[in-house]
Design a protein that fits this description.
This protein has 6 helices and 2 strands. The protein is mainly α and about 160 residues long. It is elongated.
């Protein structure tokens, strides 16, 4: 799953992401197979893989982009600078805005699927699985309540 996030990144960024992903997935698979409390998540392994890949991408790419956008925004607002030099790269306000759009779109995606920054920034793998399990329970219960409420609404309609 991490391949989809790393395919266009430089090797010096993608290699640590691959390593972290495969180490975390090895640990997750061990927990899913050996801990009764998490065995019910085995059928959701593809979803767990996606959340882990998103978390790693967030930590290694999006959070850095977000920090750069905030820093650049402060510099551009409080000075007459038209670019910020980062090594040999010059970050302009237009580029800052494009990066901000990427960060915003990523956050919209998270919100759409009820993922939080808390889940994505969880360091310990067991804690991440616990949070995924709690999110699944929450989503399942909300869906059941919404289905139940919609059925009640349908029964209470006056024709």
């Amino acid at each position: 799953m991490i391949e989809k996030f790393c395919s266009r990144l430089p090797r010096e960024i993608s290699n640590p992401m691959y390593n972290e992903y495969y180490n975390r997935m090895r640990e997750i698979n061990f927990i899913l197979q050996n801990r009764d409390a998490y065995k019910n998540l085995i059928s959701f392994s593809k979803t767990i893989e996606l959340v882990v890949a998103l978390a790693i991408f967030y930590k290694r790419v999006i959070s850095n982009m977000d920090g750069a956008v905030k820093f650049a925004g402060t510099v551009f607002r409080n000075s007459e600078a038209d670019a910020i030099k980062i090594g040999t790269y010059k970050l302009t306000e237009a580029e800052k805005n494009r990066i901000a759009a990427i960060v915003i779109n990523f956050n919209v995606l998270l919100e759409k699927y009820s993922l939080t920054h808390d889940i994505l920034t969880t360091v310990e793998t067991k804690d991440l699985l616990r949070k995924i399990k709690n999110l699944k329970w929450h989503l399942d219960n909300n869906e059941a309540n919404n289905t139940h409420n919609n059925a009640e609404d349908d029964n209470n309609k006056i024709e």
